[in-house]
Amino acid sequence: MENMYDAIIVGGGVIGGAIAYSLAKRGKKVLLLEKDRLANKASGAAAGMLAAQAELDEDGPLFQLAKKSRDLFPALKKDIKELSGIDIGLINKGMLKIALTKQEEQEYKRIIAIQQRAGEQVQWLTGEEAREKEPALSNTVLGAMYIEKDGQVEAPQLTLGFLKSAAALGVVIKEHIEVQSFHYENGNVAGVITNEGDFISNNVIVAGGAWSNKLLQDSELKLEAYPVKGECFSVCTHRPLFSSTIFSHGCYLVPKQGGRIIVGATVIPKTFDQSVTVDGISLLIERAKSLVPSIGEAEWEKVWAGIRPQTADGLPYLGEHPTCKGLFVATGHFRNGILLSAITGEVVSDLVEDKPTEMDLTPFRLDRMSEILT
Ligand code: FAD
Ligand code: GLY
Description:
Layout: E1 7-10, H1 14-25, E2 30-33, H2 42-45, H3 52-55, H4 61-84, E3 95-99, H5 102-117, E4 123-126, H6 127-133, E5 143-147, H7 155-168, E6 172-174, E7 179-185, E8 188-194, E9 197-200, E10 204-206, H8 212-216, E11 225-236, E12 245-248, E13 251-255, E14 260-264, E15 268-269, H9 278-291, E16 299-311, E17 317-320, E18 327-331, H10 337-352, H11 368-373
Parallel strand pairs: 1-2, 1-10, 2-6, 3-12, 10-18
Antiparallel strand pairs: 3-5, 4-5, 7-8, 8-9, 11-14, 11-15, 11-16, 12-13, 13-14, 17-18
The structure holds flavin-adenine dinucleotide and glycine.
């Protein structure tokens, strides 16, 4: 039947795109439905850092997942370019996690010791050493964690790259179609109900970002998840001011190709409002100038905001519905969905194929918090 698929994916962000790409490589007949436009929500707003060590400092299941994902990007860059012609803008110039206070210095030195014990490349640079590496850094910088392997990509390009590559491999992608609920048959999902009619499949993957809970509300599963707004701005310079990503508490500066710099991001929980405020941007400008004073001379480009999908325990949801076979969820990637997209595509495809996953996904299962809460 024409409207019957091996799998239906709900959501045209980086997570839906990565899963579509991975399932398509495995020869599956896939449909992806997006209620708005592709890459137009969190995935289009992201700064694109692959900050496995800068954002996730403690060792644990999420750190392991993030490192595995980071390692997949060089091959992904090549494959996506070949299939779609899109350059995902992978840059491997490392990251400096800046300490501005003695307390931060102590904390980062503790994290360095933990990460070095876990076998990671990371080192402490004094303020002078950090400025030797990046002369644009302010004199107030006390020191920095230097993380060589934390790179970055262009997040909108990565998202469109996954989707266009998936389409080249046969995935059917439809925009402006909203999935409203699911069809069920004997404890199995049987398809989706949309504003444009029904589509049939025994496997449905919800990758709806911060909007996933709304969709799951009649499936007897309530995710402990909530939206977190992030505002950003970008500027341009004639010559690059620095080449590593500058990451600090409450602000980061990500140098892109051609002298463009993305500065992010505010963290405003429990709102779906995507407006950008003067207060949010002023705060970021102040923080950015305290890290790199010369950014004040850069040419203004634009502002934007996106809604991150966060969970109560900070771990993403990656798993099958506890009572409905074939209904999968992949969301809650919060600040690291771009980084985690590559591995999410692979492990969720393993789940759909009922194959053992490369990593134990128990910590990410869908009913983990209902167990804790009862
Ligand atoms: P989204 O991109 O929000 O996509 C979900 C899609 O599902 C949306 O397009 C939505 O319209 C669609 N949808 C929802 N419900 C339905 C429905 N019922 N029917 C059809 N479609 C539906 N991560 C990093 O790794 N590195 C970074 O540097 C980084 N920077 C960030 C900066 C900012 C300002 C923000 C906001 C986020 C940042 N993130 C970063 C986090 C990252 O952007 C997210 O974790 C990631 O984009 C989530 O992807 P997603 O596909 O789950 O969600
Ligand atoms: N990972 C950066 C952000 O979410 O703002």
